[in-house]
């Protein structure tokens, strides 16, 4: 139980320290809070002003013809084992 209590106390001390640092530098705190919304607004503004958005919600595609491959009656399967015994037994004439 003391381990949990000591971790909780450490967390409270760390939160208090962070609060004091934020209070001691109000301009930095305001800048930290304003940068993400301003950056999002800039990106959204650039997105809608620089790039044209096309409305493609009711686009119909032409069908492609479906052709099946010609069936072959003879199939060849190649197998190359990676062993020295198989290499010594296979002779190319």
* Biggest sheet character: none
Q: What's the total number of strands?
A: 0
Query: Percentage of helical residues?
Result: 55-70%
General shape = flat
> What structural class results from the helix and strand content?
mainly alpha
Number of helices: 3
Cα end-to-end separation: 80 Å
The share of residues in extended strands comes to: under 5%
Instruction: Name the average pLDDT.
Output: 81
Order of H and E elements? HHH
* Backbone CA Rg: 35 Å
Spans of at least 5 consecutive residues whose pLDDT stays below 50 are: none
Walk me through what this model shows.
This is ATP-binding cassette sub-family A member 3. Keywords: ATP-binding, Nucleotide-binding. It comes from Geodia barretti (Barrett's horny sponge). One of its GO terms (molecular function) is ATP binding. Helix content is about 60%, strand content about 0%. It is mainly alpha-helical and about 90 residues long. The chain has a domain at about 25-50. The radius of gyration is 35 Å and the shape is flat. The mean pLDDT is about 80.
């Amino acid at each position: 139980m003391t381990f949990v209590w000591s971790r909780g106390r450490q967390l409270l001390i760390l939160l208090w320290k962070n609060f004091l640092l934020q209070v001691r530098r109000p301009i930095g705190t305001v800048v930290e809070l304003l940068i993400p919304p301003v950056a999002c607004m800039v990106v959204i503004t650039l997105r809608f002003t620089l790039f044209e958005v096309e409305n493609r919600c009711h686009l119909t595609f032409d069908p492609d013809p479906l052709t099946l491959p010609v069936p072959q009656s003879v199939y060849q399967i190649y197998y190359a084992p990676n062993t020295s015994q198989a290499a010594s037994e296979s002779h190319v004439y």
